[in-house]
Design brief:
mainly beta; Immunoglobulin-like; 24-stranded antiparallel beta barrel; eight-stranded mixed beta sheet; 2 helices; about 0% helix; disordered N terminus
């Protein structure tokens, strides 16, 4: 451990490789006296006398070749906003793909356009703003050229968790579609000491019918290569409005609740409550405070079957934790905000000072779960304080080093962790990611008694070392990881999927888009070999997978051989095959089916998860998901249905800021979870919610809750 730690420190501060690429594209900021109306039309007079650019090139499938259909971009500004308009010509408007209607949707198969802005011109971090042809908005904040852009279950709640109050609308015409953006300067962070600034900028278009991803700047092989963005020049920041108001958002709730325990009488309770969120901007920092927050409008996580020995990581959805959440990320996360429950109040400070990114957060949990049984070695969920501090220093053009400390404590019982991490940019788009962390626990075991006196609670310490070489480009990616995780290293505030492991994991992926009938070809290989700290082999895996995309059809197959030892020291050798088939036409319906078959934990296993999404109109959608897990013990001819869930979802988008959503989920154990939500943002950041929950638990208990919440934003320029 000590030798590896010394190597870690040496690599962090010696020989940081950098690469500097000059931007080849430029657009000049032009002032407008009359701002445009954001309505998805280019009929405002101001668009005739603004900066204009175009000549997009393909990012996929034929890199650096001219895009097959023209795109024009118009840019102007006034004292309050940066205005951008896209004019996207399209010969086959009937094949325009537009399905997503919920804000911060993932535009996987939608036509869309995106603006990416590097306000500090640091070549590493940027804001992004995107619109699809329905006017659905998505915004993100990417750090270290997209290193916080996780995939899979955790994609939302990291990069995409950042939200900004901006305007956007789209419109369709006979041979093109138009997207208009109005981005307030006051919502962005940038240096205000420069009279006339230059920002990094890029414009992006996804054109679904020819399967083209198009870019304004030549990015090479990485979509989020911020260091290769073009330039937005002549922006007089001393003349724009950058003052952000002090925001108060009080809210009140009313919650009638009907509870009925099995065999008992129904009980009705009505509870009224109130709370407040406060946001106080100071220069390049933002202070957020929350008192008695209520997250009842957040839909519960779906019931997912996990066929691996690694726990699922669900995205963060609660508003208080979203702002700046990406800054707390490390290769192995010491702070995972989903571990914080029953929040009574909290505060945080997020900002940037020169080359330093700073984040500080603290909170207090309430007494709601005091009656819950606490397992041995587990810190109680209720009545505890927690705090986390993050400092990250940018080094060179694209490298960085950082520290993070986190503490969860109640009295003399605590769980603390601290760590160092570094991201070092090497040639050929390779990153070296490093982390060393240590954890301290006390109070989990009964303290010894000596001569009638109780000694101090015993403490436990352990650490982790993580080294990763990663090349992540859109065509070829390679990850090589070495991890040494101590037997007792498992911070309750973090997300460490495995403990007591030492070994390597190597992954490689080839992913390419093509012209014609064959649209996508992807192949992946993964090898893993881990042992515990005693030297016993615990995980040995080899897996292959391939994905084929033909027109709107996608097929995936992934065989795997996996030797592993469980917590009871039982040895298993799994031989399984994962599969996927999907049909994603541009309109009306999408079909997907995911599954696994083979031998898992010495049982014949068959799992399927078919899904269908129907969109009869651009505003109405229906979704049905069925998942079934069948298992059969060795020597048996009878399949057992061990997991079975049906999930129905319906959504309707009345307007851009008004929607309704309802879901119903039923499990094998006759559990029922019904959720209904009507949400209306009647003015920016002022919302009205009506929520209905109807839950039946495994033991037969029934709980029905009607929840009404209104939050109203108040602003003041007092400070």
């Amino acid at each position: 451990m000590r030798i590896a730690l010394a190597a870690f420190v040496t690599l962090c501060f010696c020989g940081l490789f950098t690469s500097e690429v000059s931007a080849s594209r430029e657009i000049k900021a032009v002032l407008t006296e009359t701002p445009p109306k954001i309505d998805g039309k280019l009929d405002d007079g101001c668009w005739q006398n603004v900066a204009k650019t175009g000549e997009f090139i393909q990012f996929e499938p034929e890199r650096s070749k001219p895009a097959t259909q023209a795109t024009n971009v118009y840019l102007t500004y006034d004292a309050n906003n940066l205005y951008v308009a896209f004019e996207c010509f399209k010969a086959d408007m009937d094949n325009l793909a537009a399905n997503q209607t919920r804000r911060d949707s993932f535009f996987f198969s939608d036509d869309h356009v995106e603006i990416l802005i590097d306000t500090f011109l640091d070549g590493r971090n940027c804001y992004t703003f995107a619109l699809n042809p329905l006017g659905t908005q998505t915004d993100r904040r990417l750090i270290n050229e997209g290193s916080n852009r996780r995939t899979g279950q955790s994609a939302i709640g990291t990069a995409i968790s950042w939200d900004c109050n901006w305007e956007g609308q789209a419109g369709k015409e006979a041979d093109k579609w138009v997207a208009e953006f109005a981005i307030p300067f006051a919502e962005l962070r940038f240096s205000k000491e420069i009279a006339t600034a230059t920002w990094g900028i890029n414009f992006w278009r996804n054109d679904e019918s020819p399967a083209e991803e198009q870019t304004w700047a030549d990015l090479g092989e990485r979509q989020y290569a911020v260091s290769k963005f073009g330039h937005l020049t002549d922006l007089p920041l001393t003349e724009v409005v950058t003052q952000r108001p002090l925001k108060f958002k009080p809210y009140s709730t009313l919650k009638p609740q009907l509870s009925q325990f099995e065999g008992g009488e129904a009980e009705m309770n009505i509870k009224a409550d109130a709370g407040m969120d406060v946001r106080y901007p100071i220069a390049d920092f933002t202070i957020d405070l929350t008192v008695n927050p209520d997250f009842a409008q957040i839909e519960a996580d779906p019931d997912l079957v996990n066929l691996t020995d690694i726990p699922l990581r669900f995205p963060e959805k609660r508003p208080f934790f979203l702002e700046g959440n990406e800054l707390f990320q490390m290769p192995l996360d010491l702070f995972y905000s989903r571990r914080v429950e029953d929040l009574l109040g909290g505060g945080k400070v997020i900002g940037k000072y020169g080359k330093y990114n700073i984040a500080l957060m603290g909170a207090v949990a309430g007494p709601e779960d005091m009656e819950r049984e606490i397992e041995d070695g587990e810190l109680p969920l209720a009545n505890y304080n927690y705090s986390v501090f993050r400092l990250q220093r940018e080094v060179g053009k694209t490298s960085s080093v950082g520290i993070l400390g986190v503490n969860k404590q109640r009295g003399a019982t605590y769980d603390r962790a601290g760590g160092l991490d570094a991201r070092i940019q090497l040639p050929a788009d390779v990153n070296l990611n490093l982390e060393y962390a240590r954890e301290w626990k006390a109070g989990f075991q009964q303290p010894p008694v000596t001569q009638g006196r109780v000694s101090a609670p015993p403490s436990i310490e352990d650490d982790v070392i993580f080294v990763q070489l990663a090349r992540r480009t859109n065509v070829f990616s390679l990850d090589a990881v070495y991890a040494d995780i101590g037997e007792n290293f498992n911070p309750e505030t973090g997300f460490v999927p495995r403990v007591d492991r030492r070994g390597v994991v190597v992954r490689s992926r080839y992913n390419k888009q093509y012209k014609g009938a064959l649209e996508r070809l992807r192949g992946e290989v993964e090898y893993e070999r881990l042992a515990n700290q005693a030297g016993q082999l615990t995980n040995h895996r080899t897996s292959f997978s391939g994905l084929l995309g033909v027109k709107d059809f996608f097929f995936f197959l992934g065989p795997q051989w996996y030797y592993h030892v469980n917590e009871e020291n039982e040895v298993f050798t799994d031989r399984t095959v994962r599969f996927f088939a999907g049909w994603f036409p541009p309109k009306y319906v999408q079909l997907r089916n995911t599954g696994t078959f083979g031998v898992r934990d010495d049982k014949d296993t068959f799992f399927i998860r078919p899904e269908i999404t129907i969109r009869p109109t651009s505003k109405l959608s229906f979704e049905f998901i069925l998942q079934r897990l069948h298992e059969r013990s060795p020597g048996s001819t009878q399949w057992n249905l061990s997991e079975w869930t049906r999930r129905f979802v319906v959504g309707y988008q009345f307007a851009q800021r008004m929607y309704a959503r309802a879901s119903a989920e039923f499990t094998l154990e006759r559990e029922r979870r019904v959720f209904g939500l009507f949400a209306y943002e009647y003015r920016p950041e002022s919302t009205f919610f009506i929520v209905y929950n109807d839950n039946r638990h495994v033991d037969g208990d029934i709980e029905r809750i009607l929840f009404i919440k209104i939050a109203h934003l108040l602003k003041t320029e007092l400070f």
